[in-house]
Amino acid sequence: MLHNKSFVKKTRAGKVMKQVREHYLRDDIYCGAPFCTVCDTSGARLNASPSTTILVVDTNVVLNQIDLLENQAFDNIVVLSIVLEEVKNKNMAVYNRIRALCSNSTKKFYVFSNEYHRDTYVKEMSGETKNDRNDRAIRVATQWYQNHLGGAVKVLLITNDRENKRKASEEGIFAETVESYVKSLDQPDLLDLLVRPASEDVNMEEVEDLRPSKRKVIYSEHKPMSEITSGLHRGIYHQGKLRVNRYNPFEAYVGRESIGDEIVIYGRSNMNRAFDGDVVAVELLPQDQWQEVSSLSIAGEEDENEDEDVHLAPNSADVAPRTIPQQGSSGQVNAVPNRPSGRIVGIIKRNWHSYCGSLEPMPMPAGSGGIAHALFVSKDRRIPKLRIQTRQLENLLDKRIIVAVDSWDRQSRYPSGHYVRTIGEIGDRDTESEVVLIENDINTRPFSSQVLACLPPLPWLVSSEDLSNPIRQDLRHLLVFSVDPPGCKDIDDALHCHALPNGNFEVGVHIADVTNFVHPGTPLDDEASQRGTSVYLVERRIDMLPKPLTEDICSLRSDVERLAFSVIWEMTPEADIISTRYTKSVIKSSAALSYVEAQARMDDSRLRDPITTDLRNMNSLAKKMRLRRIERGALTLASAEVKFQIDTETHDPLDIGMYQIREANQMVEEFMLAANVSVAEQILKSFSLCSLLRRHPTPTREMLEPLLQTAAAVGLHLDVSSSKALADSLDHAVGDDPYFNKLIRILATRCMSQAVYFCSGDLSPPEYHHYGLAAPLYTHFTSPIRRYADVIVHRLLAASLGISKLPSVFQDRLQLSSIADNLNYRHRNGQYAGRASVELHTLIYFRKRPTDTEARIVKIRSNGFFVFVPKYGIEGPIYLTKSGKGNGEWYVDEQQQKIKRMDGSLSYSVLQTVQIHMEVVEPQPNRPKLQLTLI
Amino acid sequence: MEYVSPEGLRLDGRRPMEMRQIRAEIGAVSKADGSAIFEMGNTKVIAAVYGPREVQNRSQISNHALVRCEYSMANFSTGDRMRKSKGDRRSTEISLVIRQTMEAAILTHLLPRSQIDIYVQVLQADGGTRSACINAATLALADAGIPMRDLVTSCSAGYLNSTSLLDLNYVEDSAGGPDVTLGILPKLDKVTLLQMDSKLPIDILETVMQLAIEGCKAIANYIREILLENTKQLEYRRGV
User: Fold this and answer.
1) Mean pLDDT, to the nearest integer, of A6-18?
2) Which residue, A72, A398, A587, B55, has most beta carbons within 10 Å?
3) Quick check: A73 and A190 in contact, CB under 8 A?
4) How many whole angstroms separate alpha carbon B130 and alpha carbon B98?
5) Chain A residues within an 8 Å CB radius of B171
């Protein structure tokens, strides 16, 4: 083993410092070819036959052509460690993908640590740039492979760098560009995956001045990084993540830390080629250019202007369409807009990935060698259209496809991208469901064999070891039962309640003991932690844990013995908690009831059996607990959840209706809330810095503005000073019709943001507050089968009771925070996916059933209004004027939230009931959408 | 950050169970009674031992030898040249640690009414200075001919990216992970020093400690070799 020192100069905090690092060069790094006679072949991964070409790829090939590398046709590739390092520095997402490829056992990718190999390490020469040195290292390594494996094996360097290729050929290395290599493979489909080099290089500004530009420059230039940095420093520019409005792609927001407010960016040219999620630098526009936009969408912006779609009624501020709070409503129509707007001057970090969508319908081009340029429309409306090149246009036109973005230069209106793969036919329910899942980054792959290997052998039964375990209490004698939605297979909670001799009640909540089977650090645990949550679509469920655990081993089914984690309270008949006890247990559920059954039992006064008595006792306790919670200021919010009846054969929706909430639902919910609160207190007491809790931030006044405005328009005063005040004023909001209160509650709900998971060490105790439940502490404990957060909480609880050790993850706060972030992300995506699935099924349902129904106006805009259809839980626009035309005919009264015809013959005001017609139309072939019209 | 690549290589090209290159030299300070230089990779320390000699402060006389130790870092030992004050908390602590470790090995009862001074200075720091100082001090004490129970050798081990790592360098050390410094009497199989930064589950501590013990033993073998060679040279010079 040789030993060598490399000298690196590094600046840190402006100081130039010389840093010395040791760099050991080794002779025990092997080539990875199984047929090699010199090397140790135990870790070899390359193709066993010497006749296949070994490919060496350079950094830019990995960075740009990762889609191609993921294709089956690419195999037997040597990835050099220098390439990995460069990729890691440039793009973490690509790095993770190439790493995944290297560890994928079906692909023959071998990582060769050239930087640590005695013969392939190269020292930087004087005057040589870092890039040149790395290119040389790649060539040296390629050469080494060639010499090492002898002439029998062909080693091919794939590089798109002309200079590198020339030098390689000079040194006697076979080198080819990606394009010529793909062509030599003779698979035309692969060419679609190829990323074409951008027509102009990054430094095209210089070229620009020299030649008269033939093409129109559409976007202004991005400022160079140095200027951006100094601009940010001086406070001229603001940095932030761009968030494009989900419902209006021409409107985006940048939260800026420097002012604490957000900047609005209107229109594509101000957005200057930025995508949703990019980290950008923004310059504020002069105040007289700040604009006020209140029409349904901005008119006159190119030909892309699309109408708003009908969508599901939002249930929180996070999914609701962003509305601009209309200020200055004190009678002045032309109040100075005080919402800062800006334009993007540079992009600091791109958030490009691949998108789902379809091609814009177009005629087949004649000739041109089969290559067609097509426009791709993403399903996600926040993404602009993409220009792609394809040789298989006729195949792709009626398909949902995935496309990745490559570049966007100033001269082109649309960014360019390349085709990645086809999902299926447009409009097909399975395809569309898959699109929903891909769009929301939900992993639907079957569980890997490593994960399945972690499962206990089936059929699983409670063993005598479990019963004799001192930490586990035998509660099989208790009358335990579960209440869940009908058809529920993953039953993770059960209850019991029995009267004690002293008049009090013993109430127990028993939660499936998932952590008994999912141990930290196992592949099963890692997978569950990645998935974060089970996702419920209308017609299918994507599990977080493998099916045997979800539906059998953990599920607290009736008449079988199951392991549980129990929270047991002693409660007075007034529902005051006297004592709380937590224990692992063995239970035997005696009944798995549905909400309907439970409700029916409670309502049927003739029934006197023990379960029914327990149910009634619990219900009366729950009612008291609920009342107390509401007195404390918990909000009773409402959402317009709908339920489908699905045809068992065709999986098409048969009927659709509002989800009915019964007392039994509320009863179970109440005990689950109580268990969560108790557990939160317990874990925080033991682990004040590393507990996983859930908080619901207090909505700001600005967020509640739309609600207040609507309420004011109908003459209702809402007090939003605290959750208690809001809850009270919501209670008093009774109109002349029975649905009024519910409607106000629905509107209130959508102003709130969603609750989030967090690590208790990251925030101070007052911030732990859960606004909606009016609880100072809250966590998730009751659904470990379908939420990973609960698994973590189970571990924390077990550790706080001394039952097991705290896994080492909890000592790393950063890691815990990142787990919490991932859970929030997965949770939100899961919900988006669920909603998108409902929207999809709504569309399928109405395809054959044009319907007339009643709707409520919820929002007034300058050329129409939004209506909410209570029966189907959907919301959508109704246009009074054709978009694009003059709005002269109608007049909007902001303060009264009314829209009137100029001659005063007709007027609509907010919350008014209207009759509408719902119908599925196809403005373009294969693009069905739901249209609402007034009758 | 990735401290161990999936290929099983650390940032400097070592494998997890490998130590840095070590080198030792006896007799670096001719004026001292015993002295040594010890290098672990880029960490380089010098140790000088004076004694056994008369106790300077008469009030401290006892029937055991008095061991004193002073640890310091040269101003040029790290990249930024900063004037290091002598009595800062860190060096006071390390001085104490080294003194206690060495005291456990020296047969102090054989040297009553005398004092032994150990001076260690870090010439170049790259992680693991504590261990290097102890190793250098052992060599210097042996060079000075001070009676000892056994050699004391020291080595550190850490736990990063769910892997136990032997002999952390500066980059790995500043990762903030657990860092176990262990000093043992290799022949007697006794631990004289055990320190740890950060937290580590108890079962993992055992494996990390085991690794550190292996490291200490390897160093002990090397030190013995150096001593043997040194003795041979002395023998040769005396013409025996």
Assistant:
1) 61
2) A587
3) yes
4) 8
5) 21
Ranking A326-340, A757-771, B28-42 by mean pLDDT, the lowest is A326-340
Cα–Cα distance, A112 to A93 (Å, whole number) = 21
Contact residues, chain B, for A26 at CB < 8 Å = 13
Q: What is the ipTM of this complex?
A: 0.91
Q: What local confidence, expressed as pLDDT, does residue A780 receive?
A: 92
Task: Domain B22-238: give its CATH code.
Answer: 3.30.230.70
Model pLDDT, residue A2? 56
Task: Tell me whether residue A234 is exposed, middle or buried, using C-beta atoms within 10 angstroms of its C-beta: 0 to 12, 13 to 18, 19 or more.
Answer: exposed
Structure tokens at A149: 């494996």
Domain A29-183: top CATH class: alpha beta
* Cβ within 8 Å, pair B12-A113: no
More confident residue, B61 or A714: B61
Question: In this structure, what are the phi and psi dihedrals at residue A324, rounded to the nearest 5 degrees?
Answer: -90, 120
Identical fold between A29-183 and A847-934: no
Among residues A183, A158, A168, which one has the least CA distance to residue A59?
A158
Transcribe A766-832 into DSSP letters.
GGG-BTTTTBS-----S-TTTBHHHHHHHHHHHHHTTSSPPPGGGG-HHHHHHHHHHHHHHHHHHHH
What are the tokens at B2? Answer: 């990735």
Q: Kindly identify which residue of chain A lies nearest to residue B18, measuring between CA atoms.
A: A24
Q: Residue B106: is it exposed, middle or buried by C-beta count within 10 angstroms (0-12/13-18/19+)?
A: buried
pLDDT for A616-631, tens place per residue?
A: 888 899 999 988 888 8
The CATH label, of 3.30.450.30, 3.40.50.790, 2.40.50.700, 3.40.640.10, for the domain at A354-426 is 2.40.50.700
Tokens of B172: 């790995």
Provide the token pair at A316: 């929180």
Mean pLDDT of A524-535: 89
pLDDT at A926: 63
Domain boundaries defined on chain A: 29-183, 354-426, 449-697+753-837, 847-934
Lowest model confidence (mean pLDDT) among A163-167, A258-262, A600-604, B8-12: A258-262
Which of the residue ranges A329-338, A638-647, A721-730, A765-774 has the most confident prediction, judged by mean pLDDT? A765-774
CATH homologous superfamily of domain A847-934? Nucleic acid-binding proteins (2.40.50.140)
CB contact under 8 A, B13 and A19: no
Q: What is the domain partition of chain B in residue ranges?
A: 22-238
- Give the H or E element holding residue A597: helix A595-603
Report the residue of chain B nearest A17, measured CA to CA: B79
At B33-47, the pLDDT tens digits run: 999 999 999 899 999
pLDDT band at A639 (very low <50, low <70, confident <90, very high): low
Q: Which amino acid is at A310?
A: V
User: Which pLDDT belongs to residue A888?
Assistant: 60
Closest partner residue to B12 among A22, A102, A111, by Cβ? A22
Contact partners, residue B75, CB within 8 Å, separation at least 6? B81, B82, B83, B84
